[in-house]
Amino acid sequence: MIIGAAGNGTAQLAYTRAVSSWFEKRRGMALALVMTGGALGAMILPPVAQALIQRVGWRLSSAALGAMVLAVGLPVAATLVREKPGFDRGRRIEVAGASVSQAMRSRAFWIVVVVLFLASLGQNGAITHFTALLTDRGISPEGAAMAVALMGAASFLGRLVTGWLLDRFYAPRLAFSLLTIAALGIFLLSTAHSLAMGALAAILIGAGMGGEADIIPYVLSRHFGLRSFSVLYGLTWTAYAIAGAIGPVLMGRAFDASASYESLAVKLSILTLSAAGLILAMPAYGAQTVEMAPAPQLTTEAAS
Asked: pTM score, two decimals?
């Protein structure tokens, strides 16, 4: 529980507003580049952690990974993460965009919430039990760890490609494609009985999941501006986190009841595909879904 609570504070939720404040025309690519760090970690750390556990046990391995966060992540965040001058809340400068209440009265916001909830149920249910599912079907722990690393590699590439596409195409259509890819990956995982099939499922899930991480903050910033971006992203991320907690529990209970993940994994793939269909109902950026407040001019007091 503590790891989950602290982990959300180090995820993209904490820095996407700062990144968005610096970039306008190439915001999609900027968000993608920043988020590739998480994908690189997902690609590199599972085999490293597996090797550490085999050598020194899980307790010392956890301590070593935690020390790495303190030694590398903390100094970088403290010294480099800054909002663009002119977005400094300490100087009471406001930015254009919708208020929280305005956004929450819009159809676009609730579509994002429901899409994230459904997608998170499927993806986190599959990802959390990914290794257990493969090893239960006779695949070695090393093979399962390699498949997880492939998932991270696919997530890395998916984020970069999606970031490039976001600056050129309508984001909900991209989200539809990515969620459909992730749904196919979950479906393949439900019947995977070989390392090759498990690796293919991992690549599809990773590509879909990685691209989705780029799209949500981008969509929120385009629809609602940056005035209440952090709160709105936090609310949508909360829906994602709640579903992310439910999905793995449902998978575990399904396995305990039937000694198989297959039936529920198929249902989760259908939920993810439903999320893909729903995202197409998002209104266009130019549609007046909320009343966007303009950024007020700087006062003498604010500028001092």
From this structure: 0.74
